[in-house]
Design goal:
Elements: E1 2-5, E2 11-14, E3 35-36, H1 59-71, E4 75-78, H2 91-107, E5 114-116, H3 131-136
Parallel strand pairs: 3-4, 4-5
Antiparallel strand pairs: 1-2
Length: 137
């Protein structure tokens, strides 16, 4: 059952049809390590300026999605350019996303791996004048 938002601010129940995929943890280890560049879940009920950085993240659903991926045997690549950075999340929100995901992974029974994007978008161009400043950023 899905709860879909309506334009008047209420939600409506929607019953899915078909046979859902059953989440399962693999019984044997993968021979390769697979990382999902998981996107965040936006709340359609939060009123927010679409040009405002940080967005309207539904933190509970975002973390629930990471648990789903971990349950499928995947790891998570967090705050990557392809999924969050440059796609609406500012540095402070990306940092919070990293912290929340890493904390969830610590207590997850499968002890999943999390890798995090390393960008310099939180710095002004005037702060990064040479290679050492970029590396230390």
């Amino acid at each position: 059952m899905l709860r879909l938002p309506l334009t008047n601010g209420t939600v409506e129940n929607y019953k899915l049809v078909g046979i859902p995929m059953t989440p399962r943890t693999p019984s044997i280890s993968f021979t390769r390590i697979a990382f999902a560049a998981a996107h965040v879940v936006a709340s359609p009920l939060f009123e927010i300026d679409p040009w405002q950085l940080g967005g309207a993240i539904d933190w509970d659903e975002t973390l629930k999605y990471r648990h789903h991926l971990w349950g499928q045997g995947l790891y998570v690549a967090e705050a990557m350019d392809t999924a969050q950075r440059g796609m609406g999340l500012d540095w402070e929100t990306a940092k919070e996303l990293i912290e929340r995901t890493v904390n969830e992974a610590k207590y997850h029974p499968l002890k999943p791996r999390v890798v995090c994007g390393a960008g310099t978008d939180q710095f002004g161009i005037e702060e990064l004048k040479n290679e050492d400043q970029i590396i230390n950023a």
